[in-house]
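Sequence only, no structure available. Ideas?
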Amino acid sequence: MPRKHAAITGCVLAITALTATAVPAAAHPLTTGVATTAVTLKPPPGMIAALQRDLHLTQEQAQARLLNETRLAPVAAQLRAELGDTFGGSWLAGDLAQTLVVATTDRKKTSRIIAEGARAEIVSRSLKQLDAALDTVDAALSDHRDGPVRYVDVRANKVVVLSNVPTTTQDVLEASDVNPATVRVVPSIEQPQLLSDLVGGNAYYIGTSSRCSIGFSVTKGTQNGFASAGHCGTAGDTTSGFNHVDQGVFQASTFPNSDLSWVAVNSDWTPKPWVSNGAGGTVNVSGSRVAIVGASICRSGSTTGWHCGTVQQLNTSITYPQGNVFELTRTNVCAEPGDSGGSFISIDQAQGVTSGGSGDCTSGGVTYFQPIGEILTTYGLTLTTTDGSTPPPPPATSGTCTGYSRTITGTLANDQSVYQPNNRYYQSTAGGLHSGCLDGVGSVDFDLYLQKWNNRNWVTVATSEGPTPDEKITYTGTAGYYRYRVVSFSGAGAYTLGYNAP
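Reply:
I predicted one. Tokens follow.
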């Protein structure tokens, strides 16, 4: 699905609307997985104090919460892989995140969930069905300012639309193909705005008047740089650091549809695996494992510093005044203009860069971030982490996908996805047969999806979701724009994708 975002002047956003186009934007993948931190983890400096302040916990409660999250995260990942198409989402419950709840559409799976120490919940719709329903809702509301916030609420097992004109929004949805049993419209005054205004959270300046915040240090080949929000600048814009010393140049930027960018810096700046904790110290970045719903999360920004909260929803669509943005993560962490682009981190795992929100850090607010996995995959970046490790070269695949006119190779981390060809799409000028073949290595479980652009959204038209790394797709379709999505359902490794098009 496409995504979208904007740019900033001083502490106030100043961006004009972008012209819509029927040609699909560049692709937007998911996330990378990293081994779980030991339960004996020492909490990052400043995080305990921030959790005490923002979640109203004692020091002991904040410590217990982080230990529970660390202990339960791998259990959630394991059960998601085992449940497959019956998985209905997972979340942490309780003030101390002491309970892992895992939803499923198959009552027979509850005993397996309980055996892992989690609480089982039977739901009517799988997470895959909810994600598809959100796509339909996004399509129905894409030309409307009604319902500026849409997300998958796994706790309610519905798609939720927040709207300040709920009756109008309901009328629009009822006139569309949306299943009314799947969607709940909630009255809300929330109107998200962009928050634009090498250590994550530090300020940087674009030109002479705009300010944003560094997200995370990254590398691409021999180039050093950092990831940030797409609305902060466009390719070719120059930047200076918090000290107004020349810093770098935007290499790429995507907004709207997504809110992602990266800046290559000059030799005066060295990437560090750190995020500022707002009190003169730093928090280490060890990886980018995705935090589940209910997990603690903290944000660092150059306007308001260090604030914490919890993950509310993972798959959220936002209508900013500048356009729609898809697949953001929703949090109850506060932020203000100038914090855009800054770091979101859960314990020591990078989560994403600040996009926009509503409210402030005096009265409280809601903030959305662009997941870091999409930024890394879209631009071919490597996150700078404390272990300094680099992935091994991909092994040769088994070669079962032969005889295809186009062949692409790559690697996937656990829970990662990528769009091919080359994070973009291909155009078929005539109707006919599309065929794709995915060939992976080892005991991993990779899946393959073919998507078509319908002049508004990407729609999945064919799937292959077997329990092995090898998948095949055939689909007869009309002329148009197409792309493949390669997904690691479980495990990491190399793959080869072969495909033919009319």
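The radius of gyration is 22 Å.
Hope that gets you unstuck.
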